[in-house]
Design a protein that fits this description.
With 344 residues, the protein is of the alpha/beta class. The protein contains 16 helices and 10 strands. It is globular, with a radius of gyration of 19 Å.
Length: 344
């Protein structure tokens, strides 16, 4: 079976010949490994695609998050200034809006027509044409709440959820429409079977359960349902300790949920097992970054043990994005679990 087929069995909560293994996110690592800079490739679909194809050829993902590392560019196209002159993930230098009163300045159609966005969409299709039958391609974007935080600023958005909830919701809804319009162009390709939404600003480490339920959950549920209606997979990643959100995730019903090493995999299996595929959760900043390959393998084995004997619906991977300085041998140490028919 191909890695794509094995990953799809996990997405479908069905048993497979082995646990799928991958590196989620990793955009700056891929760009660095390819000897590129984000500024050089951002408007060149062929160059962007080449970075992700090169990464796949290096490590052999069962599932590949295309677009990783490029997540700030939609906000940039909406007006946020950016610094992207090296292989580090592009840094936004400020918000696009100084207040919610300026919401009418956001140009959705103009942003979608920006050459950077057109290159991003086309790059996903080029990757699909080349390796879309070998690996499960899951394009990744910021979710609506995090996109809104980029456009307005994190502090201002969080303050607005209390001081101007109507305005905050209008901005979040705008971002949800924008993300969907961009996503539907990408997943129109038959070999792009779904998408991932990353919501670091929606972490329980940053917002309350009440804020999550009022401002984050409704737009994520809508996008998950749009994917389901269209016969596509949906995946959600939320940073931090998301243990308190596991029940919410089960109710929202995405195809898959990506979680950090702060979450006990045994608890994730208890709550989500048989309902939502779980991807995680080797720490991206522990042994993976600064340890030896054997230490990485030890941590990976601990994850497998924590998940338990019923391996359905589980993908072994890092718990979040990882720096470009991760040694290649450590990435390959994690990916070496692909070659083991019996893991435990």
């Amino acid at each position: 079976m191909t890695g794509k087929e094995i990953a799809e069995l996990a997405f479908k909560l069905q048993p497979g010949p082995r646990i799928p293994v991958t590196l989620i996110a990793g955009g700056e690592w891929y760009v660095h490994q390819a000897g590129q800079t984000f500024g050089r490739i951002k408007s060149d679909a062929e160059a962007i695609a080449g970075v992700f194809i090169h990464a796949f050829e290096q490590v052999g993902h069962d599932m590949l998050w295309t677009g990783a590392g490029l997540l700030n560019y939609p906000a940039h196209c909406l007006g946020c200034p950016v610094k992207d002159d090296d292989s580090s993930s592009p840094r936004l230098l400020g918000p696009a809006l100084s207040s919610l009163d300026q919401l009418d300045r956001l140009d959705l159609e103009g942003c979608l027509a920006d050459p950077i966005m057109e290159a991003y969409v086309s790059s996903n299709h080029l990757v699909a044409d080349r390796i879309g039958r070998q690996t499960l391609l899951i394009p990744t974007l910021w979710g609506p709440f995090t996109t809104a935080a980029r456009v307005l600023g994190v502090e201002q958005l969080l303050m607005a959820t209390v001081a101007d909830p109507k305005g905050a919701k209008e901005l979040i809804d705008f971002c949800a429409r924008f993300i969907w319009r961009l996503t539907e162009r990408i997943i129109d390709h038959p070999l792009v079977p779904g998408f991932n939404l990353s919501e670091p600003v929606a972490s329980p480490d940053m917002i309350s359960p009440v804020t999550f339920r009022k401002f984050v959950r409704p737009v994520l549920v809508d996008l998950v349902e749009r994917a389901r209606t269209g016969g596509k997979y949906s995946m959600i990643h939320i940073c931090g300790n998301t243990t308190s959100l596991l029940e919410e995730v089960a109710e929202m019903g995405p195809t898959a949920f990506s979680l950090e090493s702060k979450v006990d995999l045994a608890e994730a299996q208890r709550v989500l097992g048989g309902k939502v595929c779980v991807a995680g959760n080797v720490s991206p900043t522990g042994s993976f970054l600064s340890g030896s390959p054997e230490e990485v393998r030890t941590e990976a084995r601990a994850c497998l043990k924590a998940w338990g004997e019923d391996t359905r619906g589980y993908i072994l991977t890092v718990g979040c994005d990882f720096p470009k300085t991760v040694p290649l041998e450590n990435a390959l140490a994690l990916m070496s679990f692909k070659d083991q028919q019996r893991l435990g």
